[in-house]
Specification:
By secondary structure, the protein is an alpha+beta fold. Among the domains are: 109-119 and 195-295, ATP-grasp fold, B domain (D-amino Acid Aminotransferase, Chain A, domain 1); 124-192, Dna Ligase, domain 1 (2-Layer Sandwich), CATH 3.30.1490. 28% of the residues lie in helices and 23% in strands. It is built from nine helices and 13 strands. The chain has helices at 40-46, 81-90, 98-104, 109-115, 134-140, 168-183, 196-199, 245-261, 303-315, and strands at residues 21-26, 50-55, 68-73, 94-95, 124-126, 146-151, 161-164, 188-192, 202-208, 211-218, 238-241, 270-277, 283-289. The strands form three sheets. It has a five-stranded antiparallel sheet with strand order 11-10-9-12-13. Strands 2-1-3-4 form a four-stranded parallel sheet, covered by helices on one side. Strand 12 and strand 13 form a beta hairpin. Helix 1 crosses helix 9 (303-315). The protein is globular and about 70 Å long. The chain starts with 20 loop residues before the first strand and ends with a helix. The structure holds adenosine-5'-diphosphate and magnesium ion. The site of adenosine-5'-diphosphate has 20 residues, from strand 6 and strand 13.
């Protein structure tokens, strides 16, 4: 006996007359998106969603015309964080929500993680209001090993440098770097250099809709003092890996903090938790990326389709 499959009839109560429209927010140097995000456009189209790359600071874009705006390759926001956050506040239905973007684009969020008992890299914070002398900066830098100077608002290692504590010339460059950042009114972070970045690389755990989707290890490292000519972002070699229970636990605890620090965060469409090995050899958060994380989808079979489905679920009727 054979059965005949009924031909699918579009349900007029659910089939939209025009497909939902989603903007994928990018920056002006990548108007067609980061190549890693570009496949989202056809993947969303496949699901009945029209996806349009749009430059976040283009005044001609009507953000209210979209059913959702997904922040993707807005890599140039860090020099204009206030403008970026105001833009996010002005956009209806932005993902992740503006409150999350505001919290996450300033690395003081690491203090919330630390207060909640999540392992983070030990950090000394320098306030530009304090008028630190060179001597005072010198005494606040580590006595042993390499260390890192970075601003609290940054992306893609911009304005970040690596120094050697026992090398007088390197210490001098670090002091100059700190003073430059403070003179720009920026809070500065001083951290020990985590040597596992050189050996194991950084473990990046990608979550989609609150679920651990995959892990990617990247091998980029800081090579020396800050150079102002550093580009927008750097090429990284990547490989996928299966996060272990300890890594997943730290990542989940870090994401739990978002829920308490940002009450209206909801379930995040996307999140990336970057882990290194701390001085005790345990997984330690270096960064929580809830704003414009590279998701390394090209390295992971099915990643584009999964992320596209999560976006589509937010805008298709009945979602
Ligand atoms: N304490 C640290 N130890 C080792 N490497 C670091 C440290 N801090 C930063 N880095 C390096 O600099 C890069 C950028 O720093 P990160 O904290 O991720 O800020 P962002 O990505 O926002 O610029 C990291 O990916 C890592 O390679
Ligand atoms: Mg980073």
């Amino acid at each position: 006996m054979t059965t005949t499959a009924a031909s699918p009839t579009p349900d007029p109560t659910t089939a939209p007359a025009t497909p939902p429209r989603v903007a994928l927010a990018t920056c002006s140097v990548l108007p067609r998106l980061d190549p890693d995000d570009a496949p989202l456009v056809p993947a969303l189209e496949e699901l009945g969603v029209e996806a349009v790359p749009a430059v976040w600071d283009d005044p001609d874009v009507d953000w209210s015309s979209f059913d959702a705006v997904v922040v993707r390759s807005t890599y140039d926001y860090s020099a204009r964080r206030d403008e970026f956050v105001s833009w996010a506040a002005s956009v209806p239905r932005i993902l992740n929500p503006e409150s999350v973007l505001r919290w996450n684009t300033h690395k003081f969020y690491l203090k919330d993680l630390e207060a909640a008992g999540v392992p983070v890299i030990p950090t000394l914070w320098l306030d530009p209001e304090r008028n630190f002398s060179s001597r005072a900066i010198h005494t606040r830098m580590p006595a042993h090993g390499n260390f890192v100077i970075k601003p609290v608002v940054s992306a893609g290692a911009k304005d970040t440098g690596r120094y050697q504590s026992v090398d007088a010339a390197s210490r001098g460059l670090a002091i100059t770097h700190v003073k430059e950042l403070l003179a720009q009114g920026r809070h500065v972070m001083v951290q020990p250099y985590m040597t596992s970045v050189d050996t194991a690389g950084e473990a990046r755990l990608v979550f989609v809709d609150g679920e651990l989707a995959y892990g990617v290890t990247t091998s980029t490292r800081l090579t020396g003092p800050h150079r102002p000519t550093q580009g927008l972002y750097r090429k990284e070699s990547t490989r996928t890996f299966e996060p272990d229970a300890a890594q997943e636990d730290v990542a989940r605890r870090a994401l739990d903090v978002v829920g308490s620090a940002v009450p209206d965060a909801g379930t995040l469409l996307y999140a990336r938790v970057d882990l290194v090995l701390g001085e005790d050899g345990e997984p330690t958060v270096i960064e929580l990326e809830l704003t414009e994380p590279s998701l390394f989808m090209a390295s992971v079979p099915g990643a584009v389709e999964r992320f596209a489905a999560a976006i589509a679920a937010r805008v298709l009727p009945g979602a």
